Amino acid sequence: MDVHTKWMQEAMKMAEEALEAGEVPVGCVFIRDDHIIAKARNRTNQLRNATRHAELEAIDTILSDKELTPQMTTYPLNSTTLYVTVEPCIMCASALRQMGIKEVYYGCGNERFGGCGSVLGVNQGLPHPAHPPYKATGGYCREEAIMILRRFYVTENTNAPNPRSKANRVLKTEIAPVFTTEG
Amino acid sequence: MALALGLGKSTHTTANWSPDPPVTSTDSITYTTVRDVQPGEELCIFYGHNLWFKPSDKMEKQVEESVEDGWGGLSHISASEEEGQPYRNPFSDGSRDEVVPEEDLPFTRFKLPPEEETPDLIRTVDSWVVDVPDARHINTLIKWLKQAQLETPDVAHLKRIRKNLQTGETTLLLCLSPQNDPTGPPALPDSLGLPPCYKTTVPASSALTLPSLALKSALWPTMYTPKRKDEVEAWTRGKAAWAWDAMSTTVQTAREGTLLKNELPIAAHIPAPYDGPPLTVSFAAHDTRSTTSHPLRHAAINVIRKLADYHASNDSTRSVQLDTGSAPSSLLDPAAAREDNGSNYLLTGQTIFLTHEPCIMCSMALLHSRVKEVFYLYPSPSTGGCGSLTCLPTLKGVNHRFSICTWSDFSSLRLDETPNHGDAHTFGLRLDGEIDA
What is the ipTM of this complex? Predict the structure, then answer.
């Protein structure tokens, strides 16, 4: 197993934890010096806050840990790599750039919110006057990442504004090939 | 009874920002109301917008001057009229219900990109459809749609049936199939012997103009809604006054952060909605990047978090009630229970006021929170996500739109770009262009 798949499997474990907690199943791990320094999952429902995505949860953990962040620098994540099961959304992609993330690997793309190319290329396409761009590469454990989302979405997301009954929806197992690659 | 808390208290003790608060000569403060006060009404004390606290090192001289002034330290606050500059809500008088002409409003509505009048501008979404060979089955299927709960708001902008005039073929729209919604098609009733359903591309919203209608209906028959509700919304003096007060609070919050804590002069404020129920709580937060050593503690993120924590604490109150066996009314009342759904989409129907156009992260946080309107004072030309660098609610694919208004009336808020005679409370709040607000 290559190293990216290894770390992505760790991120998948966090996504499984999210699913068990009734959250949109997205998980992530942050790697520095070949070690996991933080892992997190979506907590939007638990915290009643649609912005508490896995990546932001983990960043808070890293910054509040004096051993991981002994002193504040302009780009505290410039030697840290992120593995996340779903392409970071536009919000998280911007947060990661503001934090100077080194690199991002993700599982499946996100056509509705994706900030690493699917909807907007916040990681490198979009210019920023100060923050350096970062590379984001998708496709690691992509099918697993899609299947766990499907397992969540065939149940009703009762926290959505207008929950749709999915009683008559069936779990689809066929996965379309990737048409677009990284952003 | 009024308690001298907050500004009332701090004016008394810390307005002069001295390590040794000046001792006042009386033991009581008398507040006189300008009208009758109803039982239960909240009292607010207004010291004039000119009241501001300066950092202690700059204040020592004034402390000396004002200790024994007999006004509890308020005498150095000059009435705004004396300085010849109006600093009061320009919409506070007159009839609250009078409609304010668009050009007299203190803000400009952000012009969304041109309506979808060329094929490449049309926002589309995939949907599941099925051909219905036998037209007699249409009525049965329409009833079935209702039973299967497929009559959802996300298809309300589309007609349900497409009839091909050349082939006579009838096609029924079942439901949308957004690309990242991985559920398959709905299971059709077996008895009708329908062919398999398939995906087709349909417009993502109704048509606002006739050229747009023609293009959209070529994809799928689309509703024509020439007057969108939010486009013709008239603003009354009362609502304009509400917005002005909200923006004024936002500016004060930013100045507080920068003067007292040396933070970036950025703030966000979610006022109680103008038409909302009374006693709705409002929230304000300034940027805290500096004091928290956290580059992502932006004002908008901070204020959303305050709101979320407030809701979460109310939720825990409710679960305690559940544990003790007395079910709260919201669980018994289906309408209230419905309101609970989507309660983590915190800003549904709400307006946020910001000193600066929010960065990409904050703009998307607002979109995730389903904000209704965003007002800001200063555009962020190279970092802003609400009209400058990009405009998130207009991007193809995003599942929520909000409207954007840029504040234009700077003079009534006394946002001078240079400190006025060293007057710390009238300075502007401009930021370096590289900063994400």
Answer: 0.91
